[in-house]
Sequence to fold (630 residues):
Amino acid sequence: MTHIFNLDQIKKVLPTLDIVKDLEEGFIAYSRGQVVVPPVGELSFEDPPGDTHIKYGYIKGDDYYVIKIASGFYDNPKINLSSNSGLMLLFSQKTGLPASILLDEGFLTDVRTAVAGEICAKYLAPKDIYRIGVFGTGVQARMQVEYLKSVTDCKDIIVWGRNRSGLDAYQRDMQEIGYAVQTTQNAKEVAESCNMIVTATPAKNPLLHAGQIRKGTHITAMGSDTLEKQELDPKILQTADIVVADSIEQCLLRGEIHKALEAGLLNKKDIFELGNVIIDKELQRTSADQTTVADLTGVAVQDAQIAKAVYEALR
Amino acid sequence: MTHIFNLDQIKKVLPTLDIVKDLEEGFIAYSRGQVVVPPVGELSFEDPPGDTHIKYGYIKGDDYYVIKIASGFYDNPKINLSSNSGLMLLFSQKTGLPASILLDEGFLTDVRTAVAGEICAKYLAPKDIYRIGVFGTGVQARMQVEYLKSVTDCKDIIVWGRNRSGLDAYQRDMQEIGYAVQTTQNAKEVAESCNMIVTATPAKNPLLHAGQIRKGTHITAMGSDTLEKQELDPKILQTADIVVADSIEQCLLRGEIHKALEAGLLNKKDIFELGNVIIDKELQRTSADQTTVADLTGVAVQDAQIAKAVYEALR
Fold:
């Protein structure tokens, strides 16, 4: 029998789970070569514009394999629907039978993405974060900050956005849950006042430049996950003390690291993979003046781990 | 809301539907270039051995797109489970939201595959079929014959199989539903007594040879759907009057046509696509002495069409 769960059920069980631990184990298995992750399947639509990604894979010898379907249909807000939706499917590695369908509406993808940011900050952010800079005003611009609460008590945010209404909504919503929020349309102002920065935009040209960054800053760049998208000046990666990828294989092809390699400003040997950073103290931040960058593109093992944890708690 | 249906519900509604018409429309749209079908996603497992295929696509401008997951875990019968399982997911092309999940356990894949064979026979088989030859004793060896009932009244079968117990079970089961069944382990005996042949095995070497085939025979080769599998001597395709592929693009890479092209015994220009055969009488059989071959590899548009028809009847 296939167990089917909806978003309310999933949201209820999530706070009881240790997703940081599950994702860390997933990233470690991935970096050890114990994870099978074929290339992402893609479908594009023109009218209305939308795209769907199919991410799938498994940890060898685990109980389940996972297929995750996530879509973005960008005109949905015009009819009062969220742009993003999706679901996760768990199948037995022993029989192929579908064990569970999690009708999470894309929520678990948001969570596993935010938790990946949390894990990066855990090992790479400076101990004393005095202000958090955020680029973008969408779901991840909020969740990435909220999931930092296990890493820092800092509640002081400066947020950069392209338009006024987005900034106002972000400020209002985040102040409601206890943050002090300054808004800006000047990236330099963010860089100069923060030592922890999250970029969470779909930008196709650098928003942040090398000269602007303060020494000792950690940046988690999670917006750029395609060949075209880019949020950081590649010189930031060139001059950083530590550059980390969630998946080196994926980051060679998409995101900030891809852009820096393409520009000849980064060597493949200077990129470390998150799963290795988690288990090796020498790859983590060791002093307050190191500048660090983590580039997240999203790996199917994150989906496998969060889906498995949620299913096992709900079944 | 996502509507979820199980196998019983699906089986109940299926007889009320005109799947031949739906698949014909699908094949026509495919041959007209109106269908988006990305490469098949694949996962392989070693212990126990299994594989999972993800087929997905859509007819441009249609209401839905479809993602179909089908797996084969070959040790399942040892624990009294079917080797094959799977499900189909329908999503809105307008919003990306999941409209329906059909928990069909692989049944709709079996049906759409058998109906594709029926469509091939409708346009390519001789009018007067005096005996049906079958290679293989599995699910498709049965369903391909049963779905010929709209094309021919012939109930006389000769079946070839690798082992005695499979042949005995096939004979018993098919006789129970009204067929006269002779069994054999000699392929020549099949070829010499039939003018309609279905090959439905996972063979990796030719079972049928060119000299054995009677003039005027139609062959539907549906077993070979990978790079390695092969059921027909490529000379059969070389000497056939009409060679048809469900998808020329796929048949260049897998199945009988792939093998014949590789052997230099067939030209790409001599292959016709099923969707074009359906709409063009000149590509169909025109006389009793033509020898014809249809090579089926399975196209995602079949999944899209059958899933849509079932969902619209059930919702």
